[in-house]
Known about the structure:
The chain is of the alpha+beta class.
Amino acid sequence: MIPLNLELFIAKKIHFSKDGDRKVTSPAVRIAMIGLALGLGVMILSVAIVVGFKKEVRNKVIGFGSHIQITNFDSNSSYESTPIAVNDSLKEALRVWPGVKHIEVFATKPGIVKTDAEFQGVIFKGIDTDFDWTFFRNNLKEGELFTVDPDKNSTEVLVSRYLCDLLGLKVGDNLFAYFVQEDVRARRFHISGIYETGFLDYDKLFILTDIRQIRRLNGWEADQCSGIELLVHDYDQLDQITEALYFDMAEKQDRNGNTFYTRSVKELNPMIFSWLEVLDVNVVVILILMMAVAGFTMISGLLIIILERTNMIGILKAMGQNNVSIRKVFLYVSFFLIGKGMVWGNLVGILICLIQSYFRVFTLDPSTYYLDAVPIDLSLTSLLLINLGTLAAAMLMMLGPTYLITKIDPVRSIRFE
């Protein structure tokens, strides 16, 4: 009885054959599958690391400055900002804006923190009762977050571990800061907690305090601030939301006639986000190289299988099988080999990702990479796309070697040993 799919039947016989006289095929096929498995494993790791790295760095930048900032159009790039007046109606309009998750006001003020032995220039970021503590709560290392009381000024501050180590401070200590204006003003603060994000460019810069302290130093009124920060639900919609807000806010003015200026976190930090975009190019290069290496190893393995089965190919042709049918046989064989290699590649890649994700085996220098360990972010979608892409590319590359079958002569090949 002839099988319904004769090509698949013959391919299974070839692939799952336990003949002991195949001295060349077994090691050649094993090497080809190892090459494919290693290539796929490297591709999974590359995508997981780059996606994780971009997300971690992006989230830290957003944690310090939100997705979107609305400031005074006349403000320069320094932290000594020109204020805007924000009323309740404006806050409510922004709060219900499509795609916006949270809004908060902020104020910044450059200052100098001094101890008996050291001093350091910093930025005091004033926050109000509407501040979202999620990012700093997740990165709090010692002490506790302070509470902003709407009825009185708080002298408590949240300081980074970097600044505490540099200045020799700890939770519960007093911190003396000096602000240079028309005259030098001094303020004493109390350290309520210590945070550490690993993003040293910002850790060494920002100290969180009550926004009323900044308003008093600058002589601002109760509704004035440096700007408004907005968080969005979907980062992929950030550009569209920013553009819509830009044109809407540009037509409005505060009670003092100041025009609003809307910018996204990408515009506020162009160097960092340009650098992150370059990483995508690196991933594409790695994927292409790994795909090429894996493909060529599979091609060499399939060629050896075809040459070894020359006698069988001649017999099939003599029995009336055409070239297309016989090529299908070896494409099925390729599919089995590729599938087995991909299974091992997935196991290796996913296992390394899990080990790094839970045990943080591979560390980084935070001063260079903004992170203290290699980040991992592997989604099911990414994993499926990598596997489907690898399978499709590898099967397409297998079409070339099977063309050799059309050149095999039945008469000579039956005598081939």
